[in-house]
From TrEMBL:
Protein name (Swiss-Prot/TrEMBL): Tic22 family protein
InterPro entries xrefs: Tic22-like
Native source organism of the sequence: Aetokthonos hydrillicola Thurmond2011
GO biological process: protein transport
Coiled-coil blocks: none
Domain of life of the source: Bacteria
Pfam families attached to this UniProt entry: Tic22 (PF04278)
Length: 262
């Protein structure tokens, strides 16, 4: 994970006005500082579609009274889905000659989720806020919806990419785990339903009422901002398998964001 955090430096992001998928909440009592929250989010890579200079692809938003309302930038949780979007654009570029040069140079650029959070925090009090439209992994959304329906919850409660947490029981606490790089047990929040099911299968024999709670990224961040509970320091977000493999393939001496490379 350390290599991911090292290259996770701030890049110039295009966009303004209101927040589409908000990491919101101004609270007088913070369990964690903004920097601590950013460091937790840095473990999760997200993917932007950028030009060779590292500037994200964006589309204009219509403001009030017909005025320009800034731009919205897509943030993909899946590298494959971001690349698929580029491939789709290239498939239709011949129908619109104006797209040819733009589409030809597009690429998928990874940044830590913490960088997105950092940018949003910097602009949260500005009249024109940064706008990001998150693109969750379709399979994870489907799994989250099924779990919500099975538990009788509203399937419309997700405001951002789903997160899966394993509990000892619906009215009990979260299941901690041990990881070699941490001195104390950590509380895993998974971006993958499959990973959560793997932990659940280990817990079920001893705790038959154990289950998976569906949260979302926005809800996790709001909790980290508003709650003053010591256990929140143990929370770690675990990317899905594809994202973990991406991190493992990063060069060991990779110290800057691909978006900053000239």
């Amino acid at each position: 994970m350390k290599s991911l955090v090292r290259w996770g430096t701030t890049i110039g992001l295009v966009g303004s006005t209101m927040l589409v998928m908000a990491f919101s909440g101004n609270s007088p009592v913070l369990a964690l500082t903004d920097q601590q929250i950013k460091e937790k989010l840095d473990s999760v890579p997200v993917f932007l579609i950028t030009n060779p200079q590292g500037l994200p692809l964006s589309r204009p938003l219509q403001g009030q009274n017909g005025q320009k309302g800034g731009s919205v930038t897509g943030v993909y949780m899946s590298q494959q889905e971001a690349q698929a979007f580029i491939n789709d654009l290239r498939a239709v570029k011949d129908k619109d000659p104006k797209l040819t040069e733009i589409v030809k140079s597009l690429q998928v650029t990874a940044v830590p989720l913490g960088v997105i959070y950092q940018q949003l925090q910097k602009t949260k009090n500005q009249p024109n806020r940064l706008v990001f439209a998150f693109k969750p992994v379709d399979q994870e959304v489907k799994g989250a919806m099924e779990l919500l329906r099975a538990s009788g919850q509203s399937v419309q409660q997700l405001k951002s990419p789903p997160v899966f947490a394993v509990r000892f029981a619906p009215d009990k606490g979260y299941v901690p785990i041990k990881v070699p790089t941490q001195k104390q047990e950590v509380i895993p929040l998974f971006l993958s339903e499959e990973d959560a099911k793997g932990l659940l299968s280990q817990v079920k024999p001893k705790f038959p009422k154990a289950d998976i709670q569906v949260i979302d990224v926005d809800g996790v961040i709001t909790t980290l901002q508003k709650k003053n509970d010591p256990w929140l320091n143990q929370v770690i977000l675990f990317p899905d398998k594809a994202a973990r493999e991406y991190i493992q393939k990063l060069p060991k001496n990779n110290t800057s964001s691909p978006a900053q490379k000239k």
